DNA sequence: CTATTAATTAGATATTTGTCTAAATACTTA
DNA sequence: TAAGTATTTAGACAAATATCTAATTAATAG
């Protein structure tokens, strides 16, 4: 839960998730969408991966990232639990 | 959204919300539940208030805190939007 | 093979955050 | 009104975080 909320607690990372919602993207394509250096984006992607919010697959020299919505159930349930 | 996720990104604050789920509590009662100084808890409560996750009312020399679940809808919707 | 492209790792740095103690404010009660 | 209790504010400090540039790793193409 900690890792999850930590990953979600950043505007850039939340925006990355929104981009990946539309379609899978390479690290470079993601970086191109922001005014932030590639290493920084790489770091954000790492945190998102640690939280299981995205997964990645190496395709040749590219790394393709995908959104993983499954883990969002946990956040939903945490919130639901609070609401009762 | 930023303020909300920021407030949720801390174990102590999440635990405070869980305590308030059961019943309203004074600042002192909340502080008593943790091994953290009162000023620190006060600061946590402030962040939760900024995020509208709790509200407070002064009752004599006490300040009673309550959980505000309404704002959680926003988190829910943000997540739901990502899941489609 | 060597050069190029994609991505990550390393290391540095400024900012943010959580925590503390001490002091201030607000209310109650003797 | 003076003393005591509840809470917050102020200021300091260590740890965590987001960012950068430079260097490294991995894969492709000439």
TrEMBL record, chains A, B:
<keyword id="KW-0238">DNA-binding</keyword>
<dbReference type="InterPro" id="IPR047796">
    <property type="entry name" value="SdpR-like_repress"/>
</dbReference>
<keyword id="KW-0805">Transcription regulation</keyword>
<protein>
    <submittedName>
        <fullName>Transcriptional regulator, ArsR family</fullName>
    </submittedName>
</protein>
<dbReference type="InterPro" id="IPR051081">
    <property type="entry name" value="HTH_MetalResp_TranReg"/>
</dbReference>
<feature type="domain" description="HTH arsR-type">
    <location>
        <begin position="1"/>
        <end position="84"/>
    </location>
</feature>
<dbReference type="InterPro" id="IPR011991">
    <property type="entry name" value="ArsR-like_HTH"/>
</dbReference>
<dbReference type="Pfam" id="PF01022">
    <property type="entry name" value="HTH_5"/>
</dbReference>
<dbReference type="GO" id="GO:0003677">
    <property type="term" value="F:DNA binding"/>
</dbReference>
<dbReference type="InterPro" id="IPR001845">
    <property type="entry name" value="HTH_ArsR_DNA-bd_dom"/>
</dbReference>
<dbReference type="InterPro" id="IPR036390">
    <property type="entry name" value="WH_DNA-bd_sf"/>
</dbReference>
<keyword id="KW-0804">Transcription</keyword>
<dbReference type="InterPro" id="IPR036388">
    <property type="entry name" value="WH-like_DNA-bd_sf"/>
</dbReference>
<dbReference type="GO" id="GO:0003700">
    <property type="term" value="F:DNA-binding transcription factor activity"/>
</dbReference>
